[in-house]
Amino acid sequence: MLAIKGGKVITMTSKGTIDNAVVLIEGDNIQEIGSEITIPAGCEVVDAVGLYILPGFIDAHTHIGLEEEIYQVEGDDVNETSDPITPQLRALDGINFLDLAFKDALRGGVTRMMCMPGSANIIGGQAVFLKAMAPSMSEMVYRQPWGLKAALGENPKRVYGEQKKMPRTRMANASMLREALYTAGKNIDKTVEPAIEFRQQSLIKVLRREMPLLVHAHRADDILTALRIKDEFDIDMIIQHATEAVTVADELIKRQVPIFIGPLLINRAKVELKDVSFKNAMLLAEKGLNFSIITDHPVTPVEHLRVTVALAVREGLDETTALEAITINPSTALKVDDEIGSLSKGKKADLVAFNGHPLDNRSRVKWAMVDGRMWRGEFE
Known about the structure:
Blueprint: E1 2-10, E2 17-26, E3 29-34, E4 44-47, E5 52-55, E6 57-62, H1 101-107, E7 110-115, E8 123-126, E9 128-131, E10 141-143, E11 148-151, H2 154-162, H3 170-186, H4 194-207, E12 213-217, H5 220-233, E13 237-241, H6 249-255, E14 259-261, H7 279-287, E15 291-293, H8 305-314, H9 319-324, H10 328-333, E16 351-354, E17 365-370, E18 373-375
Parallel strand pairs: 1-4, 1-5, 6-7, 11-12, 12-13, 13-14, 14-15
Antiparallel strand pairs: 1-2, 2-3, 5-16, 7-9, 8-11, 9-10, 16-17, 17-18
Helix pairs in contact: 3-4, 3-5
């Protein structure tokens, strides 16, 4: 058993912050947490006096290991642009688990992340939920598959317009997504050709609400199109990027659709990003929207997730809401809040320790822990 003693623990639960806390860890789970806990004899003790202890951060939208920073053609496996409808693809099969970004994530306090195909395709493939470290590369897979990536708006239009093939308009984007869902729905209870069944397995999981459709949509009109499709097929959906979400906040709230906003630490590289701003998080919070903040790594490097959040706080976002956006909110949206996203008895021992407040850019990560395994790496 391991005891982390003396730190200021920000639990991200109704217990709030616990000063001079003790966190008891057995294996990969938290056994007890509080300020008046007796440490068992023979327990290994980690001195956390002066440290802030939080749940490991969750970056809910990345291309980590799939779109590598150093390698160009060799490490670019994020978009299969030979076909705009590729639900059979799995991000997991393109990930380089030796990508330097996994250690970068730990240095930034990110212990888990969702990796998904890019947004060139109407349906790009299946996302995978990852751990930043594990005893083996295979064990870095947390949940697979954990969502199906889709995209509306500018990206599919541009990619396939250049090839002079469909889709070349927003109408075609929506039509092709609808057609894929409609066709899969007609085949749910039928015996079909193996090739068709293989391609449609993930779509059927979406239709059965076994996993969400993760829809890339920046502009308000694309968000509304995504919501119409959600209504038509009665599926779970998470809006990715959501740059203009505040414009259609009422529609999102009415359907209780989670949104993952970002990347915010970015330039206005295309028309759909004209309204990108660190103030967007505060505006969404004022509307009462549930949101998480993402990096879209490597667009914004994964280790700068908390920097992004800190800059959103500078522009008016409440500190507690900001920390929720990279802990309990993504875990709830992705339906894993029973295991991660907050610190309480029975949950996974995913923790990160800072030598100052986590939203102070002068603070540094001292150590990170995933499933009870501590990593100090290059911190010291």
